[in-house]
Amino acid sequence: MLYTFLKLLYKTGLWFFFRKLEVRNAHLIPNGGPLLVVSNHPNTFMDPIVIAAQLQQPMYFIAKSTVFGSKFQNWMLRQMHLIPIHRKEDNPDATISNDEAFAASFKALHEKKTLLIFPEGNSFNQRRLRKLKTGTARIALGAATDGNYSPAIQILPIGLNYSAPTRFRSNVFVNVGKPIAVADYVAAYQENGHAAVLDLTEEIRVRLEKLIVHTTTDEEDELARQVKAIYKEQLTPAAPATALPHEQDFMLTKGIVKSIHHFSQTEPGRVATIQQELNNYNRQLKRLHLQDPLLGKESRHVLQQSIIGLVYLVVGFPLYLYGLVHNYVPYIIPSKVARAVTREEEWFAPIMLTTGIFSFPIFYALEVWFLHQWLHPNTLELILYLLSLPLSGFFTLHYWNRLQHTQSHWLLLRLFYSRQQIVDKLRQQRRHIISLLEKAREDYMQKAG
């Protein structure tokens, strides 16, 4: 009962928290167990919330034992379908035994339930898959061969790709892979258990890497982001037109990372040159408070967009002010709470989501109550007022983003008319970088072909 209530609550919260949540290959998700769901783990508590929201059936979670504590806390967490598992890194001096967790997992799978495991163990806000632990394979194969034989057990890989994991109104792309049939590994497990566990773990790793943007180092990740920012427009026509917007974005990013890895192995000097050019260019943009997309547009187009933006800001200011007054406090509270509770970035988003689930309804209820006490409106007017609160909040966010873009437009125009040589030099730098990337793309495609 508690799980069902929380799932509905958080599923509603996700709709408000993320600007877009897209799911690829949702039809591959089985409607029941026995099922083990495995995923990368970049965003702590947000990851199980996002995944559970995509499944029709209830989900059980393998969680580190350190989240358990008092008897009430243990009861509460078990009502939320958490199964504790002990990890050596949590208590290096203790003798670790997960017999209870494995037994509970076997029982859940034999009862045709769905389990979620993050085989990396810990959560890190990075676009890469770290070394996987063997627990998932051991649970799957152990449950399939412990006497109650469940040959129908499947492992479903899911890749989570966040545009900005810690930011409100960002995007998330949920990439669902084809399920792995555990029965295919049972015979090998009965012959050589250790080797079969390693083989299944490796298969899980390969599947997950295909479902996420996987960069090997922070430097490679930063270079991929810079290349995408300046070169995405040239690459977009190569993406399938039928793909979802974030699916296209994912495919383009994967292609960029793959090409960077290729040239890092074959022509590291070429990669270093492009990286240096991009760093110099981006330092100039940062110093001048400019954005790259604007430099790719003609000054006439920038002027036109600036005028349209200015009209929008003037006309929309009263509604922006209305939304700001009614939404600022419940909007700022989740951020303040997150920063007060933790300094770990990975926890910001789930804490903000959890806090916002309560702060917004409470403040909206208070605002409606105050209006009722003050002006005594009728029921229809109260309902319209209540509906205006979240809608004006969304408009306020959109208005603020438009204000930032319009400021960038006017800043570029001011530079263009007062210090045109700086703008010309930046555009020349940009064209040079794009020519380097275009040549690299041609060479890569030629070698790949």
Report what the structure shows.
α4 crosses α5. Helices cover 63% and strands 9% of the residues. The protein has 15 helices and eight strands.
Characteristics of this structure?
449 residues; alpha/beta; Glycerol-3-phosphate (1)-acyltransferase; 63% helix; 9% strand
Write the layout of secondary structure elements.
Layout: H1 2-17, E1 20-24, E2 35-39, H2 46-52, E3 59-64, H3 71-79, E4 82-85, H4 99-110, E5 114-117, H5 135-145, E6 154-162, E7 171-176, E8 180-181, H6 186-191, H7 193-211, H8 218-235, H9 245-266, H10 268-288, H11 292-295, H12 299-341, H13 348-375, H14 379-418, H15 420-448
Parallel strand pairs: 1-7, 2-5, 2-6, 3-4, 3-5
Antiparallel strand pairs: 6-7, 6-8
Helix pairs in contact: 1-13, 4-5, 5-7, 8-9, 9-10, 10-15, 12-13, 12-14, 13-14, 14-15
CATH fold annotation of the largest domain: Glycerol-3-phosphate (1)-acyltransferase
Helix content: 55-70%
Mean pLDDT: 87
- The number of distinct β-strands equals 8
Q: Give the structural class.
A: alpha/beta
Count of helices? Answer: 15
- Assign the CATH superfamily of the largest domain: Glycerol-3-phosphate (1)-acyltransferase
Q: Any idea how many domains?
A: 3
Describe the oligomeric state of these chains in a short phrase: single chain
CATH class type of the largest domain: Alpha Beta
Task: Tell me the overall shape.
Answer: flat
Amino- and carboxy-terminal Cα gap: 56 Å
